[in-house]
Each structure stands twice: as C-alpha cells, then as structure tokens.
Amino acid sequence: MGRFWCFLCVLGICLTGCHPKQETDKLFLKRKASETGIFFTNELTNTPDLNILTYLYFYNGAGVAAGDFNNDGLVDLYFTSNQESDRLYLNKGDFKFEEITKVSGIRNSQGWTTGVTHVDINNDGWLDIYVCKVGRYKNIKGNNLLFINQGLDENGIPSFKEEAHAYNLDFSGFATQAAFFDYDLDGDLDMYLLNHSTNPNRSYGKGSKRKLVDSMSGDRLYRNDMGKFIDASEGSGIFQGSIGYGLGIGISDVNNDRYPDIYVGNDFFENDYFYINQKDGTFKEIISTDVQKMGHTSHFSMGNAIADINNDGWMDILSLDMLPENLETYKTSGLEYPYPVYEQYLKNGFAPQYMQNNLYLNRFGEFFSEMAHLSGVAATEWSWGALLADFDNDGHTDLFVSNGIKGATNDMDFISFIANEKIQKAIDAGMSQKEMAFIEELPEKEVPNYFFKNNGDLTFSDTTDSWLRRENSFSHGCIYADLDNDGDLDLVVNNVDKEAFLLENKQDGKTHALSITLRGDKNNTKGIGAKVILYSKGTVQVRENYPTRGYLSAIPNTLHFGLGKDSIIDSLTVVWPLGSHQTLKDLTGGHIVLEAVNAKDSAFRRNPSFRTIFTKKDSLIPFVHKEKTSLEFNIDPLIPFANTNNGPNISVADVNKDGLEDICISGAKAQSSALFIQSENGSFYQHPDEFLSKEAFHEDVAHVFFDADGDGWQDLAIVSAGNEFTSSDKIQPRLYLNRQGTFERDSMAFQGVQLNASAILASDFDKDGDFDLTITSDQKPRQFGVKDRQYLFQNDGTGKFIDITPTFSEKFQDIGNVKDVIWTDLDNNGFQDLIVVGHWMPLSIFLNDGKQLSLSSKSGLENTHGLWNSVLVEDFDGDGDLDILAGNWGLNSKLNASLQRPLTLYKKDFDGNGSIESLVTYFHGDKETPFASKDELVKQMPFLNKDFLSYKSFAQASLEDLFGSQSLRESKKKKVYELASCYFENRGNLRFAKKPLPNIAQISTVNDMFVDDFDENGTLDLLLVGNNYEISTQLGRMDASHGILLSFVDNKFVWQKEVSINIPGPSRTIEKATIGNNVHYIIGINNSEPLVLEKISNEQVLD
Over 916-949, what HEC string results? Predict the structure, then answer.
C-alpha cells in the first residue's frame, strides 16, 4: 500500500510539473506563477485549538475578488487567505501582475478570513473591498473589514484605509460572504451578510428554530441610510436562526419585476432560503412555505450561481452539493437518511433535499423545475464555486465548478472511527498533539475542477478534459474575468495548499463577443443591479450586474456576451435599477460603455415572453385527496420506489341525464371516493347518497363510467390497490349499477377476484355491442416487482361479467407488471387491439381477430422494457395509421438504462432467512452497482458486514463479490432498457420506430397524457403530467414536472416553452370535461385537491 501511494505521488508530480504540447490545444491554458507574478497559496495549518475537529468549516477555503481597483481598464485581483495575509495584485497587462498588498495599506493577516467582495461604497468612482471574517469563536478574534479606496498615490498605486466601523459594517461573528445590492430600489446600495453556524448539525430540532434570532450565526440585512448601514433584518422576512449554515449567496431578479431577489444555500439539513422581494422593503421566503415552487433542494448546499442557461430571458439557479461522480467515493460517503427518518424531518418543518447539485429551470418566475441529472451536472464531487458564463463565446451559458476538500468529514469509515466515545471525550476535553493524529485519518479528496459546455438543449457536456489539462486540487473561491481584454473570459481559482490557478482563455478571435462596462448614477456608480438584454437572430441573452459570485468571491462589474461566429447584434437594451432604460441597435462585438445618464426615465416594458391558454379554477370541486405516509420502505427498505400512493383517478360522465358532465374522484385509504354532480351554474355538489362511503377503507386507484347493463344509464366500476392487503375484499373490484341516478353495488360482481389493481377500462373487445372490462395489476401485494395476473371480463349483455382471460388471451393474463392499457383497432380489421405498458416489461401489442387476443412478436418493440406508466395512441403524423406515445420514468434521476447497461431487479433470498430480497442495480459507468446504501443493504442482509465491514471494502467490491456469482445467476431477474418517455412512430405493417420525446419531457415521470389542440392552431398538442414523491431517499423525488405542453410539428414533438402551465405535485391523471359551457381539464393530484384548468379560447388568450 505504501508503494502504491508513493507511485501516486510521483505520478502527481509528473502530471503537475510537465506541460505537454497538446495543452495549447485546450480552450484554457494554466499560466505559471513565474509568468504571472501571482505567488499566492491559501495555506492551512492545523493547531490543537483550531482544526477540522474543532471548527467544522476549517477546510472550506477562501475567495477572490476581481475588479479594476486603479481604474486603468485592467482587472486586478484580491485573494483572501484563511489564516495568513490577504494579497492584492495589480494587473499590468499581458497576464503580468504586481503584488501591492503592503504598499496599498491592506492589512489582514490575523484571525480567520472567508469571503470577499467589492463595491464603490462611497460613490467616489473607486472600488472598495469588503472582507468577511470569523470572530468571537474559541481563540479567534476579529470583525469584518471594509477597505476604502483612497485613490492612487504618487506611484499610481491605489491605497486603502480600513473603515468598517464608520459604516456600521464591522460585524463580528461567523461571516461567510457579503453581497451589495439595492434591495429597496431607493437608489443606494444595501447589503446582505451571509453567516454560518458552528454548531454540530445534529442539533437541528425543528425547522421553526430558523425563526429565532442568533446574533452570531444569523444572516443580516443592512439598509443604506444616507451612507450609514442600518441592521434592517428584523421585520424584513429573512431568517436569522442558529440552524443556518450559509455557504452560498446569489442575487438576481428572478421574476423580472426589477426588484432583486436572494438565494441562500445552507449546508446540512436546514432549508435553502429563497427570498422573493415583496417591493416594500421585505422578502417572502418560498421554500419553507410552498415546497412545490422549487421541489427538492440540495442537501449540503455550497456555492450557487444564477444565470439564464436556456436563453429564454428568465434567470435559472444552480446550487452545488457534494455528490461524487466517482463511485467509490460515493459509496464511502455519508448518504441520505432512510425514508422513515427522512419523513420525520419533513414533519419537523424541513423541505425535501438530497445530496446532488440542483439546477433549477425558471418557468416565468412562478415556479422552478430541478433538472441537474437530466442536464448532466448533478455530480461534481465536493463542489464549492459555480460560475455560469459563456466561456466558448457561442451564445450559450457554460459552467465551471471548483472542487476538492482537504479532509472529507463525510467519509463513513472516518465517522465510525471518530464516533468512538473515548475519542469524543478526548476532543471535547481539549485537543493535544496526540489527538491531532486523528486528523490524519481523514481522507483527502483532491480532484480536478469541472467544465461543462452548454449544448443549447437543456443539457451540458462534460468538457473538463477537452478544455483544460486535468489537475487535482482543493479549489474553492473562483471568478471569471477578461484579464487581457481580448474578448473572452479567463478564470482565477483560490486553492488550499496549492498556488492559485490563473487560466487563460485561448479563443484567440475564433468567435466574437461583446463586453459592457456600466457607469451608473451618483449613488450607484458601478450600476449594480442593471440588466442588459441582447437580441440577435431571434435569440435573447440576458446578463445582470451583481458581482458577488463564484463562492466567497466577486467578479468585475463588466457584462460579457458570447456571439458565436456572427458579430451582428440586432438590438441591446440596458435597464438600470431604478427603471430607466436605453436601447441601441445594429451593434457589433467588441467593447462598449453604457451610462445611466443616457437612459430614458420611462419604465422599461419587455414584450411578454409567455402566454396563457388555461385559467385555474380554484375550489370548483370540494374534495381534497388525503394520502397516508407510505410504509412500504419500512417493510422493504431496498426498493427504489413505493407502489402505494397511486391515486387519485378521475372519471367523467353524465350520471343523471341532465346534460351536464359529473365527476368521480377516488379517495385514499380511509377516505371514500366521491361522486360530484354538476349544477347548471357550473358548480358541483356531492352525490346525496354518498354510496361510496361504505367502502372508505378501499384505496381506490381507478374507475370507469360505462353502461354495463344496457339500460342507457352510466354505471361505475372501481378497482383498488395500495399495496397493503395480500388477501382481502378491500382489493376486490366493485360494480355500481346506476338506477336512474341512484347507485347500487352489485354484490355478486367479481366474486373471488382480488388484486392490487392499476387500471380498469371499458371496451367492446368482442364486438357484440356491449361493454366488456379490462382490469390490470402492477404487482402482487407487498412483493415488489413480482407480477400478478391480468383480467379480461366479457359482458353477457346484462351486466354480468365472466373472466375469459385464460381462453381469450393466456399470454395477456401473465404479461407482467401492467400500469396502463388502451384498446384501439391498430390493424383495421374491425376488432379492437390492446396495447399494454408497465414496469419491467416492454411495450406489448395484442392483436384481436375476434377469436383470440394474440401477442405480436414483429412490432419492433421487443427491447423496450421500461418503467412505463401511461400510454395513448393517435395518428400524429397524419399518414393514416396510429402511432403510440408512452410515458416512462424519465431521465432526471441517478438511474440510467440501455440495452447494454440495463437497470436490473434481482429477486432472491440472498441471506437464506426465508425472506426474498429486492436488489435493484444500475450501471455507474461500466460498473453494475446497487443503488441502495451499504447501511440499507446490511440491515436486510447482515452477512455483508462479515466480509465488507469497512465502507471502503464495500465500495471496492464488485456486485459478484458482494452477493456471489451463483446467487446472482440463480436470482429471478427483470430488466429495464429504456427510461425515456417516447413516441413510437408507426412505419406501416405495425412496425414501430422509437423516438424519445424532447428533453423537457424527460424531466420527471409521465403518469398521464392528453391529446388535444389546446392552443387552437390546427395541430395536435400533447399535455404531460407526472411526478412521484414516494421514492427511495438515495434516488430523490421526481418533482420537476409542472405540466409540459408539446406540439407535433414537422414530424416531431416540440416543446411549447412560451406557454405558461403550472400543474404541481404528484399528478396522476387528466380528464376533459365540459363545465358550464366551457372546456376544462381536471388533473388528479395525490394528497391534494384536484386542479381544474379552464381552456381559454383564442379570442381570450392573455399575454
């Protein structure tokens, strides 16, 4: 082992000391300190009083601020050092820098320093520097520092004077970073101070603790009153509790109302804070009040970044976390809490959060869709700084992530070691040199930083190796700036125990760009808060001037736009913070200066970037679905998702023949389903008989209206599930016969039939003039992935149903874990055929010749095994035959699948205790691995600890090492090859070609779909709804869908991203109904009231 580490060290020296020729082919070139003059290292020294075991943020690094401190047109650099002296470097041009720290009057070498930003705080035209520090902690003393720029001395060097006290900004506590901005739009700059707790994260308690004020670790909001900064935190709406572990802050106008909003990233299990400016000097925090606005957040939030990643004019948000890309690191890290424990955190007032980077797509400032896995940026190791900028000047916003940790305190083997009671007592008593040896047990995570190129389709490509020579580091604070004024963005990174990186962008004129210097008004000379909107060839780019970015760091007050190979700009508009604006036309790339004095005073009005085709109708149906917490993870902790909370379903019919459509909606366990009768005025009341209340303990999941007995009245059939009862009348299908508006249960129907049902359909599959029934099941109760039988019931014409499945379609009876079916005549022989989708199975087509329902083997669907939830058919391409659409799991999770690297379910009694385990694996790169954590697996299969006691040995073991090759071979196995929701084009002769739906459709599960011409433009549209919350905490919620509208144009589906739709939560079904005289769409949402959307005609469309 010693020789192995020695080899790694020698290899590392080789890699860092050599500069191969091919490095010049990279987009970025690392410049040597001997070339630049920047000899700066953030060097850390452990002492018994101050180390990672006594200060939990000892390894969190320091920042860098980039700004023109001497007003010579070149960007200078200020580095903070945690324990030693900060450094200030003047840019002399051509990547040559001169250190001027001492001569400039900068004095900061004592205590503990964290973040840095810049601001012209006294509006004299010279950039000042604000430095954050930790004070009053153990033996650390100090307060935040404000270095006021005094202008140039006789040698042209800027000089600084520390004056934090004079501005009331000499805060002493646990400061992380500051951001200056005009939150009340009164014309001067205010300040948000981000602080952090030093308490162990085990002291959470309840989320309500965030409402208590902690003077040391609570954040502060300072209002600028005539040059004096007043603590305006109280009554402002911001949280100041002791459970805030603030590491990241982003300022942006996320809802395009001109007022700046705030995103705060908190480490550990405290919520992130997303403050929406209320325009009255206060903020509303939305994560703690409405979980559906954002969905889940990152668990160990670090740095963040805000920018428009898809050029739609709305600012998107990236929050970094510490999900490793490396599988061994992932398996040895502390992962998520078990689902039951996690549910308790939610009940205690915390929002859902998971260990991964989170990328939030902004949908018109109203809600956000988290899509990091779909975009390819979810896992970047222990990440600190995020920079969103156009590094290759192609007009799309790319991503840089700084990485690495000197000591990984989440390493489970270290946690097991350090948790020893004797060791804890020794640390608590005060560390000596003996206890200092414990620190050596911490594994280092020295890893490369990441680059991601924006592909322009909501995805990013990892360009780390093609853009920069790979080098391991402990990198933290980072900035982008055009250091040599050549039109592209360079990078500077502050490292722990390694010289800072200065990365030169080598575009060399291959593409064009525009850089903009802003000159604001007298009380905001740098134009902080200004927004610039650039239009070119039908695209829009937006930049905001908020310099605090890049984790503990600050970028220059310069805005950069990549233009690609074409330098023509149609128009450009600058909107200043107070609302005045200026528009310039027919520009080209280069550099321009925009001044507030040239702007018009009239308020700027942007053309609407979205349109509305639905109106939400609140409280129209007086029903709230009330779901119980799933217990399935208590019973089987190894499953990836539960199969318990599948309601509600919605059915529509005129049950009383008054010409109005009525609605049935299913309840949860201990909540009866309900039938609502429509009144002439479009309101609804519950059916007076409440005939469904007798079966309240049935968890109804599907139902259908149809005329069972041919009397002309709509009868009702209902099926139940819940994955709880293995044998009970609670899972017996029920038939209610409509006796002229009064419903009576047929007690003889479906005697002896019990199943965990998934769907029920009425159709005349035998073509005898009455409605038959199809009832499907997605699994045997409490047996994950184990299929149950399916049913075809033939109607004798009087409402009596006979099971004909064994004789009419034996293969359908045993087809698999069916989630949805649809009957339609695919082969035009006059008989309805059956299309079946489900979990762990392919799309399956059964052809009906009137005598037999036979499984087709020549459809091209043989390897389409997925986690399919829904299916529909339509002739989308207008060629006269029917195409298929199928809703799947989606591509926005850790899980992935292909024919070569499938998702696999192994069912076997691996430990010989008489109980069958569910082992689900996926491929992480080339390695097949369980998605469940070591702790979860060991709890179910204790034998694993005998050979793999340490987390490292477990992480290094192959699947065969863990479970045995023979056991795996003997297991019953099911596969998934496709997770994308897909369009299957009928190419003729019932041969289908698979085409994945657009990326946005893969953002979550698709639970139901509806086809209509929603916008009345003559083409078919497709509305998708989905989401699932009952998922293993190791995978995280699927909650990013807010309803997705696609149109079929030019033989493909296209996202109508300009249409505003908000269908939140775990939506299960869509039905269309006429209410009053207008078309409505009713969406059944689990554990919520139904959402009713009224369709707006073209004449009524609102911009």
Answer: CEEEEEEEECCEEEECCCHHHHHHHCCCHHHHCC
**Tokens read off for 836:** 């079946």
Residues 392 and 413 sit within 8 Å (Cβ to Cβ): no
Single out the residue of 752, 747, 744, 826 nearest to residue 789, CA to CA. Answer: 752
**CA gap 50, 719 in Å, rounded:** 64
Residue 218 has pLDDT above 60, yes or no: yes
Those residues with Cβ within 8 angstroms of residue 655's Cβ, 6 or more apart along the chain or in another chain:
662, 675, 677, 687, 705, 713, 714, 716, 738, 741
**Residue spans of alpha helices (H) in 864-1018:** 934-940, 944-947, 951-956, 959-963, 965-970
Six token digits for residue 564: 């690609």
Identify the CA nearest to 1000 among candidates 1063, 1062, 1043. 1043
Collapse the DSSP code of 108 into the 3-class scheme (helix H, G, I; strand E, B; otherwise coil) and give the result. Answer: coil
Write down the pLDDT at residue 606: 66
- Within 8 A by CB and 6+ apart from 1029, the residues are 352, 645, 1037, 1038, 1039, 1066, 1086
The model scores a pTM over 0.90: yes
CB 61 within 8 A of CB 384: yes
DSSP of 531-572: EEEEEETTEEEEEE---B-SSS-B--SEEEEEEET---EEEE
Smallest Cα–Cα separation from 701: which of 628, 780, 761, 648? 648
Q: Measure Cα distances from 203 to 49, 244, 269, 882 in Å.
A: 22, 11, 10, 59
Residue type, 996: P
Return the structure tokens found at 408. 């990984």
Cβ within 8 Å of residue 956, ≥6 positions away: 328
Please return the burial class of 99, using the count of CB atoms within 10 Å of its CB with bins 0-12, 13-18 and 19+.
Answer: middle
Over residues 473-493, mean pLDDT: 98
Look at phi and psi of residue 1078 and say left if phi exceeds 0, alpha if psi is from -120 to 50, else beta.
beta
Query: What's the distance, CA 957 to chain centroid?
Result: 30
**Chain position carrying tokens 């005129």:** 654
CA atoms of 161 and 981, how far apart (whole Å):
61
Mean pLDDT throughout 483-499?
97
Residue 53 near residue 439, CB atoms below 8 Å:
yes
Place of tokens 């379910």: 905
Decide: helix, strand or coil at residue 1076.
coil
Residues whose CB falls within 8 Å of the CB of residue 271, separated by 6 or more in sequence, listed in order: 207, 210, 287, 288, 297, 350, 351, 353
Task: Find out whether 463 and 363 touch, Cβ atoms under 8 Å.
Answer: no
579, 573 in Cβ contact below 8 A?
no
pLDDT at residue 4 tops 80: no
Q: How far apart are CA 980 and CA 424, in angstroms?
A: 49
Q: Are strands 1078-1085 and 1052-1055 parallel, antiparallel or unpaired?
A: unpaired
- Rounded-to-integer distance, Cα 970 and Cα 909, Å: 10
Q: Torsion angle of alpha carbons 249, 251, 253, 259, nearest 10°?
A: 120
Contact 991, 859 (CB under 8 A): yes
- Check residue 1099 and report its DSSP letter: G
Q: Which of 100, 102, 73 is nearest to 89 (CA)?
A: 100
Give the end-to-end CA distance of the chain in Å, rounded to a whole number. Answer: 67
Helical (H) or strand (E) element with 425: helix 421-428
Residues 109 and 130: their CA atoms lie apart, in Å, by: 15
pLDDT tens profile 141-175:
999 999 999 999 999 999 999 999 999 999 999 99
Q: List the Cα angle 216/218/220 in 5-degree steps.
A: 105
In the structure encoding, which two tokens stand for residue 405, read together?
């940790």
